[in-house]
Inverse folding.
């Protein structure tokens, strides 16, 4: 059988990465979490103390930065200038700042190039905000995954609890809603369902059910 590209987009905390990982594993494809790349450059910007709103400063930082995604058992490792930042990029500190950094045209251009190179000539499941619309416009399967903001906040809350992160539910819901707003309203490659994407509402679905729905759609395209 041939290998296809699967693009999974949607708002924050919709379960994209959890489900994308399962789908990739089942198909023997690589999984690429593009949000991790925007998080990594944001972490560097915060550490460097640059003005996140400045195009010039973001661009200058970018040229001196190396970001690598290394596929590992059950996911991927994120390297920022050779250092493993897989955990550090998940902090609230980075989460709250990432949408501002991701709005810069220069930042997106560089990330998209990297993402397209990673996906070249192989079976891939890639998740993000603009995969179906910009990064992999000819992907054989595009899914736009969503759930109510309440449900997404609740899931993130439960997930955090397992890692001893105790951000209150209301704060999570606010942060998620704010990020969705910024990601949808930005000028460059905003969060948007591709016209040829399949909409999947995961509100009533378990992780297994959502993964199975996507695997079924994938099989129809193999
Ligand atoms: O997927 P995740 O929640 O980790 O993404 C973090 C942020 O990175 C998003 O809120 C968005 O601002 C940005 N992002 C993006 N385009 C992508 C993936 C993520 O702008 N393809």
């Amino acid at each position: 059988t041939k290998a296809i590209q699967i693009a999974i987009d949607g708002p924050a905390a919709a379960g994209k990465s959890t489900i994308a990982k399962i789908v990739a594993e089942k198909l023997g494809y690589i999984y690429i979490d593009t949000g991790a790349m925007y998080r990594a450059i944001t972490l560097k910007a915060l550490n460097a103390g640059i003005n996140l709103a400045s195009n010039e400063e973001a661009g200058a930082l970018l040229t001196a930065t190396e970001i690598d995604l290394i596929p590992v058992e059950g996911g991927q490792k994120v390297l920022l200038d050779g250092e493993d930042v897989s955990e550090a990029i998940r902090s609230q500190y980075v989460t709250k700042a990432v949408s501002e950094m991701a709005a810069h045209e220069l930042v997106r251009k560089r990330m998209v190039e990297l993402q397209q190179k990673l996906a070249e000539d192989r079976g891939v499941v890639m998740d993000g905000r603009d995969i179906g619309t910009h990064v992999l416009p000819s992907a054989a399967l595009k899914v736009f995954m969503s759930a109510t903001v309440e449900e997404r906040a609740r899931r993130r809350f439960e997930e955090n609890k397992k890692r001893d992160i105790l951000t209150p539910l209301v704060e999570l819901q606010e942060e998620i809603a704010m990020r969705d707003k910024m990601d949808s309203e930005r000028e460059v490659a905003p969060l948007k369902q591709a016209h040829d994407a399949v909409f999947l509402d995961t509100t009533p679905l378990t992780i297994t059910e959502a993964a199975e729905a996507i695997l079924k759609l994938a099989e129809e395209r193999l």
